[in-house]
Amino acid sequence: MSHETLVRVYYEDTDMGGIVYYANYLKYIERGRSELVEALGMNQIEMRDVAGIVFVVTRVVADYLAPARLDDRLVVHTAHRAQSAVRWVFDQEVRRGAQVLFRAEVTAVCMTLDGRPVRLPAALRGGPL
User: Domains (ranges, CATH) in the chain?
Assistant: First the structure.
């Protein structure tokens, strides 16, 4: 399964050069992962409050390919796969039209509230999703 999230670039997202500040791409892809989790039918607040588990990002490999600018309409494309019983990997791109501006591979793990690794929910295990 993959998911697409729409993002508009606001003035607050840009740097002095008028382009999206590099750290804001991490915010955009976080929104994409959150939307994908919801589309999978999982509620992260319930996971935390009822099951006592959360997703924690442990690794990001990112490539900045071209700048986004004020008022651009962007699409965050998010695909995912289980890599192990506790590790979840996301392949994400931020696109303007057909042009890929930013690409990242993000690894997250499922953890208890006291920081111990725990198995991913059953719906997410077992190879490519």
Answer: 2-124 (3.10.129.10)
Got the DSSP string for 2-40?
EEEEEEE--GGGB-TTSBB-TTHHHHHHHHHHHHHHHHT
Give pLDDT tens digits for 4-46: 999 999 999 999 999 999 999 999 999 999 999 899 888 889 8
Q: How far is CA 29 from CA 36, 49, 72, 103, 125, in A?
A: 10, 24, 16, 9, 22
| Residue 63 annotated as catalytic | no
Q: What is the dihedral of CA 121, 112, 117, 110, to 10 degrees?
A: 40
pLDDT tens, position by position, 42-80: 888 988 998 899 999 999 999 999 999 999 999 999 999
Say which of 13, 15, 63, 91 is annotated catalytic.
Answer: 15
Which one, of 92, 91, 88, 90, lies nearest residue 122 by Cα? Answer: 88
